[in-house]
User: What shape does this take?
Amino acid sequence: MLWLIFHVGSERFAIRSDRVDKVLPTVELHRTALSPQGLAGAFSFHGAVTPVIDLAQWLLGSKTPLRLSSRIILIPLDADPNGPKFGLLAERVVELRSLDPGLANGSGTMTWS
Assistant: This one.
């Protein structure tokens, strides 16, 4: 099984590639004044408002550094591939790797140091 590897701070995470719709470069995000911590903002993806969660801000309290390897990982909200999506902003999203599915935590994600 292929997993998409990314980083949040010094930790590595992985998400099953079949749960990912697309990996996009960072784009300008629009944020409202009352957005909760962790919500980086939203952008229009094929005409739909798509919220983006900043994983570093949500998990560590500091924003994801915007680097060449920072990406928005688009995840479908349900089984419909044409349905609504949300984005995860992460850094060093650069690798697909075959990993042992026994390492997953049941949610389709894993982390390790």
About this structure: Residues 55-60 form the longest helix (6 residues). The two ends are 20 Å apart (CA to CA). The chain has a mean pLDDT of 87.
